[in-house]
Design goal:
181 residues; 6-stranded mixed sheet
């Protein structure tokens, strides 16, 4: 998609990636806005200099309103994403304090989707360690760029012991997620 997001097909419906921040301005929207502004100025000058052109201000209003509506929609979408993102991060931070031993991992890639879970590549944020992982199926889809708050499994990760070749994330060990910002 032109705004940098992608969609994951789930059944018959498509879902937008909630991790990616929506872009406010795109080159096409900026160019359209600039062309509309230039045409508006030209039409406004013509309406004052040529008699019988009272229809020009009406014709001028329509494209300007359309462009303003596009900008308003983009701004509203970005504000909504920021509010939802802040709420997810607040929930993640609250759970981090309340849940005891937790850690954050960032989903770098989703390598294979399965009915019972997914093969993903994660980065342990605290240690900056990257490894493959199996994550059990969750109620929400997993997206690259998601930061997961998990309760690490002490049988897999222990101080002084080597990292497991593949880390297994149990569905009930995932406490929350938030987009990487």
């Amino acid at each position: 998609m032109p705004d940098g997001s992608f969609k994951l097909e789930v059944g018959a419906s498509m879902q937008m990636n909630p991790v990616l921040k929506p872009r406010l301005a795109t080159p096409a929207l900026i160019a359209t806005s600039a062309v509309t502004l230039v045409l508006a100025v030209i039409l406004m000058v013509l309406s004052f200099t040529i008699s019988g052109t009272a229809w020009l201000p009406v014709a001028l209003t329509t494209p300007c309103v359309v462009v303003l509506l596009f900008w308003a929609q983009r701004l509203r979408g970005q504000r909504q994403w920021q509010a939802e993102s802040a709420a997810k991060w607040k929930r993640l931070e609250d759970l981090k304090v309340a849940a005891g031993t937790t850690t954050e991992v960032t989903v770098l890639t989703v390598d294979a989707l399965q009915p019972t879970g997914s093969w993903i590549t994660i980065r342990w944020n605290r240690f900056d360690y990257i490894q493959p992982a199996w994550i059990e199926a969750l109620p929400d889809p997993i997206w690259p760029g998601s930061v997961l708050l998990i309760q690490p499994d002490p049988t897999q990760v222990q101080p002084g012991a080597p990292w497991p070749e593949t880390y297994r994330i149990s569905g009930d060990h995932v406490l929350a997620w938030a987009p990487l910002v």
